[in-house]
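Human: Here is a favour to ask of a fellow structure person. Comparing notes only helps if you start from a blank page. Give me a protein, with the fold worked out from its sequence. Please set it down just below, with no commentary around it:

Assistant:
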Amino acid sequence: MIEEKRIHIIHGVLFVALFACASFYISEFHLLKYLSLSPLIIGIILGMIYGNTLKKNMPEEWLPGITFSSKKILRLAIILYGFRLTFQDVLSVGFSAVIIDIIIITGTLGLGLLIGKLLNIDKETSLLTTTGSAICGAAAILGMEPVLNNKPHKTAIAVSTVVIFGTIAMFLYPMLYRSGSLDLTPEQWGLYTGATIHEVAHVVGAGNAMQESISEVAVIVKMIRVMFLAPILLACALLVAKQRNKTEHRSSSSVKITIPWFAFGFIAIIGFNSLDILPQPVVDGINYVDTFLLTMAMTALGMETHLKKFKEAGIKPFFQAFILFMWLMLGGYFIVKYISSI
């Protein structure tokens, strides 16, 4: 019986993997490459299309495999995400970049949660949307999902806000750069781009559309933001546990904290990668596999998402994301301008 269950899980995982392969293939289309739409984003779109049309024809025994992909594989993918950063990267751009990232992350988190409360958005959707804007887009949202243990459609809504406003920023920033509208040096443009655009892919796309030196700084600054994912996940795990304890009127001694152990793994991998033990081709290979695993997780989440939930959520999460986008673009400019000149 147990062996049969494992086989069904494997079938479900392989089914999700096929969609991930298709996502990688589609992401190479010229238009999608121009838009810098990563396989992760394409994966959740394909998953949602399938989940809302043909999923009823899928063998029910495969469903645990989809859940396994959206939960277990997701955690492994977040851990391996640490291979994209080293502590040496942080030193290469200077302490001012760290300060800028801290101010922007904390400001975005505080503002986002305030807006969510004012707009009466449910706390989970609000926190997911805010985290995606504050740190690293879809990857941050995926990292927060196991901490909140929320419904898949809330993750999908948050990811869609990141896709929309991250893509807008990717095209808008190079236009502002070429027009000379913002009084920033190339180094400041790198700080500004990396500290305020949502997705890593969007940062790469915007940086490459400006100049190579800007892109190099922007990517490192962006990855420093990614490094803050672990402590934020841990802090949120504690706050969520306390909030649920308060809601259920339990004593403080009975607080159950869901510790996101994968966050510690993420930091440990960054430390290991900083030792420069593995050759770069091996690290590149790991990062490619990690992107595939993240795509599988996104695809599985899409399959578990019902579009009617988007209608129920309404426009509020997107309005919240729009305000955060304006804060990142305008507030980020003044923060970068001031901090980098000290």
The mean pLDDT is 89.
